[in-house]
């Protein structure tokens, strides 16, 4: 921050000083068309677009509704004026001598809105063949959410999961996870995922508040056009073109969160600068810089995954605070299941003490730096060539099977793109580096083990327990004494020794500890998450309208290859023997795929009926090719009522982590699902399900306590509890989806209704299953040796395997959105969303695909951008019901909650500045959105935006 802010300040000073000079330099040899645009009440309309029809010359209105277009186009010409929420107008201009006064009239917010993402080409939103949502620049500016990105969570059908201030993830139509592999996020057509983390990093590397133009979200399967990563939907964040949006803009936010929390309110600041300029009719450029810093939300939930009734059912006195097998949601290193038998022959399951997330993270300060630039060239024959670069660096937290601390993660994108009205070609590279990130589970686990190995700790605990029982202590006091004795001298949070050990473990990229680790010097273990990757992508689309006239035909193709640099921990060189893989370096891993599609659309009955069909083929080097078809029909009645129906099939290839991971984490190795990774390890066909192994241990203890027999006899008696995993190598996930919808504009364009419903069926759902392999013996014919190994972690190998569900899962739902222009600018809107797991056939399937979605969630808003002149407001209420969360981090209920966001905006046109005062979760309700996630409260903010549109542009 100390280096970044001076650069930002110097750049801001320079552009404020020199921008008038640069603007004046554009005037030579051209003429100016100027005027003002107002609404039907005479209020100035900032942000309206002005374009010379049939050309690329254009501008936008400033805060006073004023526009000036500098051009050398020949008269007469036609100007087109557009602003969402108003009826577009065209105006003939015969000379530049007079000022124009244009009035736009209010209409339904979306009646003539155009979208691109639904069919990969422009079409009216009302006639889109599938569900699609859009937020334009004005809606994004007026959102009461703390950022424009958060506003997407208020769209129909969209579920927003907040992992922290810097990391938020979309999902639609069920099967949500904080690291969402199934939802594609694009920025100007570029996939902004962090490849090895396998998830889009929210908006941490996306557009700034000043550069976002619009957002389109397609709920549901989109893989028929966008390929394998869009099985649950996709979004495209579209930025401002420097030809159309020129000027200098500055954004400053000051906010506070953690109001009422222990430690008091925390300050959050965000600064952004945008500069865009056109120096001629053929060249324009832009640059964006932003910096955010704040204190992230805390994950500190004390709920217990392993209550006494589950871990030690024979001892009700060992419950609650006295639970000796406590496994709290946000405490780590406390999930090792150790069997203790006391001097009286009673058997217990005991966990190590572990460490709270707040203790091992320490500093929850997070930062986000973003920078991007673009050079745009308008060439003859309506071609536009652009070269752009985007850089994002972020801190934060997210969750897979464990909680991950992200520190200094960087993602860079460089893109070259050529656009024509009939075709688009783009090629880009994405570079990922996880920086100083770390995994909290091995961090806590290795804190415990570097203090004392499990075997030594167990011996000390047993000794302390027996000594206390001999001295006459009751069972609760005896176990408390045993833990105090075994923990004597452990690393204590808040001490310099603890801080030094945490820093040491975070710096080591080997999550094992000697002797499991092959490095004899690694006596502390590690937790560093050091991943580096690149991916290379090229794609193109071509509309064949010039060659095929009976229908609209669009074709496209893409190629992508991932390059992973082995770190010897998460990703390894698989050409090495299994016992040599976990060493740094080696051959890079390459994972490539290619695909192509064709789409045909045709209208009938005077354009009332539109039929669309598409067919896509995708091939991955590890899997057979897959075909994704989609068919859709849209029928319109007088452009007011629009009915649609569609069917499509889609696939998803496993992500990098799902395919190639090979990391040991807390005595459990996470392994990718490709067949060659398993060779010599045995987890596919020679393993028991971990859940049954844990249940087996509890049952053995219960039998020993009840019948006072030997461990061997108790094990043999309960052998039937163990179930063979019988896993298979991973294959692509498949979805078949049916969708129907209705959009209507009613009551003289004042009421907009949007209804859609879907029914989807998933096969080969990808997830993880935990399995246990004995060191010796065969699980299909288990002898006493195998049974005994299932009671001793030192005699078994534990794996978390990426594989597929063996059964089919169906889900369905619907969503309804209504927007109504009430009176004099007041608009009320709302949406209700229902999603349900319709048929779960996974009762005999070890992999349970967590639906992780509330049955119901709703959003209702009320706003007016001009209550009085230059003052507007917006209020949004969100509610969702209780639902059950399932994934390998843990299962549990997510309680219902509701929040209110509100903002009031004051515009000062004379100084091109607006002030917005607001709050996200204004009532400061405390809630969490997933098991293990942070507790979120209110965030209160003031933003100041200076937006100086250059007056002379596009010569």
Give the amount of beta strand, in percent: 35-45%
Give Rg in angstroms: 30 Å
Please work out how many helical segments DSSP would assign. Answer: 13
Low-pLDDT residue intervals, each spanning 5 or more residues: 1-29
Class of secondary structure makeup: mainly beta
**Helix coverage percent of residues?**
10-25%
Q: Tell me, what's the shape?
A: elongated
Mean pLDDT: 89
DSSP summary, beta strand count: 52
Distance between the termini: 39 Å
**Major β-sheet profile:** 22 strands, antiparallel, barrel
In words, what does this structure look like?
There is one protein chain. The chain has 955 residues and is mainly beta. The chain is 14% helix and 44% strand. It is built from 13 helices and 52 strands. The strands form eleven sheets. The protein has a 22-stranded antiparallel barrel. A five-stranded mixed beta sheet has the order 10-17-18-13-14. A five-stranded mixed beta sheet has the order 37-38-43-42-39. Helix 11 (690-707) packs across helix 12 (711-717). The longest helix has 21 residues, at 4-24. The chain is elongated. The model is unreliable at 1-29 (pLDDT under 50).
């Amino acid at each position: 921050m100390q280096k970044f802010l001076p650069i930002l300040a110097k750049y801001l000073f320079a552009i404020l000083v020199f921008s008038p000079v640069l603007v004046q330099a554009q005037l030579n040899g051209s003429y100016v068309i100027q005027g003002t645009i107002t609404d039907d009440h005479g209020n100035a309309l900032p942000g309206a677009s002005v374009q010379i029809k049939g050309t690329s010359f254009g501008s936008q209105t400033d805060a006073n509704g004023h526009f000036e277009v500098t051009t050398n186009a020949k008269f007469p010409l036609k100007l087109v004026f557009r602003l969402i929420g108003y009826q577009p107008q065209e105006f003939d201009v015969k000379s530049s001598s007079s000022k124009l006064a244009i009035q736009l009239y209010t209409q339904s917010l979306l009646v003539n809105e155009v979208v691109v993402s639904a069919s990969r080409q422009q079409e009216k939103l009302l006639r889109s063949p599938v569900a699609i949502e859009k937020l334009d620049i004005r809606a994004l500016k007026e959102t009461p959410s703390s950022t424009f990105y958060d506003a997407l969570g208020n769209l129909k059908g969209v579920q927003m999961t907040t992992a922290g201030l810097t990391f938020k993830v979309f999902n639609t139509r069920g099967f949500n996870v904080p690291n969402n592999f199934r939802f594609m996020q694009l920025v100007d057509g570029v996939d902004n995922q962090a490849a090895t983390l396998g998830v889009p990093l929210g908006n941490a590397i996306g557009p700034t508040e000043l550069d976002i133009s619009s957002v389109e979200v397609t709920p549901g399967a989109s893989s028929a056009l966008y390929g394998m990563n869009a099985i649950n939907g996709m979004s495209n964040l579209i930025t401002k073109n420097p030809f159309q949006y020129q000027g200098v803009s500055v954004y400053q936010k000051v906010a506070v969160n953690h109001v009422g929390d222990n430690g008091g309110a925390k300050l959050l600041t965000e600064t952004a600068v945008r500069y865009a300029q056109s120096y001629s009719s053929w060249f324009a450029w832009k640059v964006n810089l932003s910096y955010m810093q704040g204190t992230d939300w805390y994950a500190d939930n004390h709920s217990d995954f392993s209550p006494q009734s589950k871990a030690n059912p024979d001892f009700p006195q060992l419950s609650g605070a006295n639970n000796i097998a406590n496994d709290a949601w946000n405490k780590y290193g406390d999930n090792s299941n150790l069997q203790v038998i006391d001097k009286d022959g009673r058997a217990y399951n005991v966990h190590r003490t572990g460490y709270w997330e707040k203790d091992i993270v320490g500093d929850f300060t997070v930062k986000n730096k973003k920078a991007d630039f673009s050079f745009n060239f308008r060439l003859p024959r309506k071609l536009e060539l652009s070269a752009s670069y985007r850089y994002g660096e972020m801190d934060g937290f997210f969750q897979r099977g464990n909680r991950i601390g992200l520190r200094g993660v960087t993602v860079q994108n460089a893109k070259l793109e050529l656009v024509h009205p009939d075709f688009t070609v783009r090629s880009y590279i994405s570079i990922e580096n996880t920086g100083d990130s770390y995994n909290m589970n091995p961090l806590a686990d290795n804190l415990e083990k570097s203090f004392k190995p499990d075997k030594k700790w167990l011996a000390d605990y047993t000794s302390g327990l027996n000594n206390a029982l001999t001295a006459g202590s009751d069972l609760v006091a005896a176990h408390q004494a045993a833990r105090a004795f075994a923990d004597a001298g452990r690393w204590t949070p808040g001490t310099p020794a603890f801080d030094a050990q945490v820093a040491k473990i975070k710096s080591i990229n080997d999550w094992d500890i000697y002797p499991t680790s092959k490095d004899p010097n690694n006596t502390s273990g590690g937790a560093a998450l050091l991943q580096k990757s690149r991916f290379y992508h090229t794609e193109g689309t071509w509309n064949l309208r010039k060659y095929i006239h009976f229908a609209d035909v669009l074709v496209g193709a893409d190629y992508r290859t991932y390059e992973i640099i082995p770190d010897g921990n998460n990703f390894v060189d698989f050409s090495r023997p299994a016992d040599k893989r976990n060493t740094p370096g080696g051959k890079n891993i390459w994972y490539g795929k290619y695909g192509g599609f064709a789409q045909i659309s045709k209208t009938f009955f005077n354009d009332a009926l539109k039929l669309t069909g598409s067919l896509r083929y995708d091939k991955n080097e590890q899997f057979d090719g897959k075909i994704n078809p989609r068919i859709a029909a849209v029928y319109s009645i007088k452009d007011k009522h629009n009915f649609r129906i569609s069917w499509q099939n889609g696939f998803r290839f496993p992500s990098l982590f799902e395919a190639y991971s090979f990391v040991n984490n807390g005595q459990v190795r996470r392994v990718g699902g490709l067949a060659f990774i398993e060779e010599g390890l045995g987890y596919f066909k020679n393993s028991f399900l971990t859940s049954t192994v844990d249940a087996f241990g509890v049952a053995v203890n219960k039998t020993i306590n009840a019948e006072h027999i030997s461990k061997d006899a108790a094990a043999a008696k309960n052998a039937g509890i163990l179930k063979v995993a019988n896993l298979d190598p991973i294959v692509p996930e498949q979805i078949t989806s049916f969708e129907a919808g209705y959009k209507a504009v009613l009551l003289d364009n004042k009421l907009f209704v949007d209804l859609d419903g879907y029914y989807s069926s998933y096969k080969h759902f990808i997830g993880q299953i935990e399995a246990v392999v004995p060191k010796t013996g065969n699980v299909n014919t288990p002898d006493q040796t195998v049974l005994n190994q299932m009671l001793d972690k030192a005699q078994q190998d534990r794996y978390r395997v990426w594989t597929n569900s063996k059964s089919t899962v169906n889900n369905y739902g619907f969503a309804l959105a209504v927007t109504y222009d009430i009176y004099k600018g007041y608009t009320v809107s709302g949406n209700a969303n229902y999603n349900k797991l319709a048929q779960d056939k996974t009762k005999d399937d070890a992999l349970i695909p967590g639906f992780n979605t509330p049955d119901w969630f709703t959003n209702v808003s009320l706003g007016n951008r001009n209550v009085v002149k230059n003052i507007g407001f917006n209020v949004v209420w969100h509610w969702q019901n209780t639902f059950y969360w399932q994934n390998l981090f843990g299962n549990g209920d997510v309680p219902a909650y509701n929040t209110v966001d509100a903002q009031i905006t004051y515009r000062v046109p004379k100084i091109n500045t607006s002030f917005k005062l607001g709050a996200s979760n204004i009532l400061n309700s405390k809630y969490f959105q997933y098991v293990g996630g942070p507790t979120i409260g209110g965030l209160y903010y003031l933003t100041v935006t200076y937006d100086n549109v250059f007056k002379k542009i596009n010569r």
